[in-house]
Amino acid sequence: MARITIRVEPRHEDNSRCEHDVKPSGKPRDPASGCTGRTAYAVVCSHHGDVGDTHHVKVLAEPAAREHRQEHLAALHTR
User: Fold this and answer.
1) Where would you tag: which of 31, 55, 64, 71 has the fewest CB atoms within 10 A of its CB?
2) Which contacts of 33-37 are long-range, i.e. CB under 8 A and separated by 24 or more positions?
3) pLDDT averaged over consecutive 10-residue blocks of the chain (79 residues)?
4) CA 40 to mean position of chain CA atoms
């Protein structure tokens, strides 16, 4: 069985992944980087892809990630 990973991923306004260095405000540190700024966080599961809604602050996305992780653990124990 493949390992399942669940992570909280920063996103741009168009929902693409943001891998740029950003300020605490979410604006890019380097204006020439082409980054539009980080506007949200998504919970991403290696098995299901994006899980649920995006969250505007990371601290709100972390409980959703924990909850999804628990769903996978519960499914393993019911087999």
Assistant:
1) 31
2) 36/12, 37/12, 37/13
3) 89 94 92 93 95 92 95 85
4) 8
